Prior knowledge:
The protein is mostly beta strands. The protein has no helices and eleven strands.
Amino acid sequence: QVQLVESGGGLVQAGGSLRLSCAASGFPVSIYKMAWFRQNPGKEREFVAAIKWSEGITYYADSVKGRFTISRDNAKNTVYLQMNSLKPEDTAVYYCARSARSSFTAAVDMDYWGKGTLVTVSS
Length: 123
């Protein structure tokens, strides 16, 4: 069975760093496109970052480019999101997801989701 479990969320001050983890089971992350999304109350789910297949090619939303880094550890079957220089507007529930489709920057492209982990950035 496919399962995605996020962890690493918490409270951090502006300018600080946080590392999120997404532990996958039931499939190898090495052959799927994996992505991170985030969502604030009253807003639509927003694309954050993605990593493609085994090549390790990465994609980022303009709002996080240069601050966030997505990576993958195939041996641990885990995807990570390293978040640096955090801002209050980064506050959201962060979700890990996968897609076997050609596109991966919209929520409808994803076929499986984790339950999310909350990140709160204080000013």
